[in-house]
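Form 12-C: Joint structure prediction
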Amino acid sequence: MTHPACTTTAEELLAWWLGETDRTEDERLDEHLFACAACAARLDALSALGDAIRRETLRGDFGFVVPAAFVGRMKNAGLTVREYTLAPGGSVNCTIAPGDDFVVAHLHAPLAGVHQLDVLIDDTTIGKLRLNDVPFDPAAGGLTVVPSATFLRSLGISQQRLQLVAVEGPEERVLGDFTFHHTPS
Amino acid sequence: MIPLLATRLYAPRMVRRGAEADDDATLARRITACAPALDTSAEAELCRRLAPRIRLYGLKHLRSESAARDLAQDVLVLLLEKLRGGTLRDPAQVASFALGTARQRVLDVQRGERRRERLREAFPADLLPAVEESPEPLDTPRLKRCLAALPERERTVLVMTFYDERPADEVAADLGLTAGNVRVIRHRGLERLRGCMQAAEGTA
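Section 2 - Result
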């Protein structure tokens, strides 16, 4: 049955699930979840959604931007990660091998003082697109992009140009250009 | 030892309407009042309700689906034994008893003790109450499309959170954000993802 005075939010349930709650809150939510079927069902759905996000991430069907430290955790978990590191203006011949789980690009650029960072992509296969307001650590000195492995595997010989752009109100400032010459393995 | 019914008797189709309408405490009282005979519908309904809660608690603390399922079965066995024997002092506290037992059991597992093996000896596996499967798997193609459609910031935070179940402060440290900011982005991302999944469902 649903606890009659249930005011527990999804955020509280997720915080409990991820171990963000202190001991007192942890125990309160332990007890609540055993008494409130509605919250148990919500948490079950949340847990299933989290599992599905993880599975889809590992499947490589969509791209994302992450801190470089995250790539380290992927490798520690046993994933095979092919890495390319480029300085501004750099280019590289690249591929994805059958045994690769992911390909990542570490794009070095001066990010100190940047508040909004966009990534402009110009691809000979899919055309142009823009990733708005990507998350980054200004102290990191660069951005790590993880393109969809499924997409990379579908590519023939192609070229992709990435541009990191600092957005300051109406003004835009290019921080670096990076070119990838892709050849299938 | 109290004999337990075969798994099939706990299948949801065997639950009569009366059991579904009763609250947890009423079900517990029915089981105790019926002993030594068995109120199978009350037992099945109580197991159906509590098993997912115990499993979630186990998943959170043990991070293993199989260990969580074992925990649910063990706790339910002990609970039914107490109810049938009339030794649960206050049946209204059935959820508290389940939580207390689950807590103790998790501590046992974490200490490397093998209490489960003793229970397995006392209650053969084919006699244990069924633990329901987790919800239906999500629609994968739809989820993929919805994830791809998220704003970059939200997708990154959700990937970093659920890839290895990291709390907000750790995600924040990697992204140069505050934990509060990560929680806000995470909340927005989940809401947008749910909305996208539901919208897609409506058009399916």
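Section 3 - Comments
Confidence is low (pLDDT under 50) at residues 1-16 of chain B. Residues 161 and 167 of chain B are 7 Å apart (CA to CA).
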